[in-house]
Amino acid sequence: MDLINLQIHTDVLPAFSFLKNNPTRLLQKEKHLLLTYFKPPNIELFNHSYKGVKVEITESDPIKQLLANDWELVRPFKLAIAKGELVEALNQIETKMLAKSRVGSGVIIDGLVYHWIAYGIRDPSDVINFVKLFFISGYSYEEVVQLFANLTIPKKELLALFLERMNQVYGIGNKSISVLDALDELVPDIETIGSEMEKEQTKETVPEYRSIFKNYRQGGY
Length: 221
Prior knowledge:
Layout: E1 3-9, E2 26-29, E3 32-38, E4 48-50, E5 53-58, H1 63-68, E6 72-75, E7 80-81, H2 84-100, H3 111-119, H4 124-136, H5 141-151, H6 156-169, H7 179-186, H8 196-217
Parallel strand pairs: 3-7
Antiparallel strand pairs: 1-3, 1-5, 2-3, 2-6, 4-5
Helix pairs in contact: 4-6
Organism: Streptococcus gallolyticus
Protein name: Phage protein
């Protein structure tokens, strides 16, 4: 099972008050906290950072490397599965980064797209990545729905997941206060973070994210 490594600058920690309901192992290095969770099923995330928050997905536990790099283990809990509000918050932040990468470039029929056309969309990870790919490629809500209807293997579970992610990515339905609102209030300008590490991560995030999806569209992911 993949792991979610969630790094949070202490300046924006108030935006994540709900983490007390999802305790897991905690490390600290200066003003940075690092929480590691098991990635639950039906969740697909890419590495990114935004306003003092950094998300990195790994296949194995990086604990040895972190301790060697001067991170301090301050809460030696067993790793927990990311749940509820945390999963929603991570999806909100990634959707923000998806929007920054959105261009009307269309989709190349190659790699994974070719696989979907040939074999259909059969599992939850396909559904999630399908929505992300066509969103950043500039397709409208209606166009993505039509494409999905033509490619998916009829399953209620896949359809429910598709509609949930579509509404989330395209900003339909849920207008409740989000972790993004809290982050924007705490850090209206990334320069106020005051951390050279975080400034560097933030500057690199959007180009790196676009690069991931460029490779993804070309069958390189």
